[in-house]
Amino acid sequence: MDHASLCVFRAVAREQSVTRAAALLGRAPSNVTTRIQQIEAELEVPLFQRDTRRMLLTPEGETFLDYVERILNLADEALQMVNPRTPAGVLRIGSMEATAATRLPVPLAQFNAAWPQVTIDLTIGPSRSLVDAVLARRIDCALVAITGNHEWLAPGEVDLVPLFHEELVLLLPPGHPRVEHPRDVRPQALAAFAPGCTYRMLAEDWISGQGEPAGRFRIHEVRSYHAMVACTAAGSCFSILPRRVLALMPDAACFTVKPLTTATTSLATRPGYGTPAFQAFRTILETFADADGGSSAHAG
């Protein structure tokens, strides 16, 4: 299992096709197939299901892919650190959806203009899964919101650079009366992302902190802010989101909005990580920063 073979396996796993992976790698499909067969023979387990039209991973293949991603990412990091003359290689960035939509477009464009030889690999997800990906070396850095209530993260486990303050607002259906307390909220469901989203946790903290029982509202999980806003517009849910995201939505002014809290978005990395590509990206991000320190959320 040399470096080239692991690259072949990763390409097939991502593309779910030998033909597409071969075209991506500039190899003959027969060569790609042979490489996969050699890896499976060495591991003595099948890595792909053979009963589908796509190359889908088996459970063993999923486990193997996680290790392969970390091995190849670490190898790329090592090459960048050994020859650090200029930013190069791949920079794997994680980001919350809101940050990617409202904070990253201009910095990423500036970075690409300055360092076109660096390939940006952007992953979107909630804060907790992004931090887990940083620690597992699946990504290099992540823009996350980490509040004071994060028992899942050990002190010093990641380095955090505060960058952006985000005003979070409670979004209620159009025509909803003003809200001062959770009991004033008429919808019986909170539209939110999956567990691991810091903003969802802050909404739940607001509800429980006002003395409301944990089961007062059910959670309606959605996958995008557009879906969140649509559910709220329909009157079936309320939600929490950054004001900057709401400003991007059509007809945002028709909703009832309550300022709820302020959270800080920070750049998270593994302690000691510092490839030239990352350092250049961090420098550009800091020119757009509006945070003055601290990465915890506080009531607003």
TrEMBL record:
Q: Where is the HTH lysR-type domain?
A: 1-58
Alphabetized UniProt keyword annotations: DNA-binding, Transcription, Transcription regulation
Q: Which Pfam families does the record match to this protein? A: HTH_1, LysR_substrate
Enumerate the GO terms in the molecular function aspect: DNA-binding transcription factor activity; transcription cis-regulatory region binding
Task: Tell me the InterPro entries matching this sequence.
Answer: LysR_HTH_N (IPR000847), LysR_subst-bd (IPR005119), WH-like_DNA-bd_sf (IPR036388), WH_DNA-bd_sf (IPR036390)
Summarize the protein's role: Transcriptional regulator of the ttuABCDE tartrate utilization operon.
Family, as annotated: Belongs to the LysR transcriptional regulatory family.
Query: What name does the UniProt record give this protein?
Result: HTH-type transcriptional regulator TtuA
Q: Which organism is it from?
A: Allorhizobium borbori
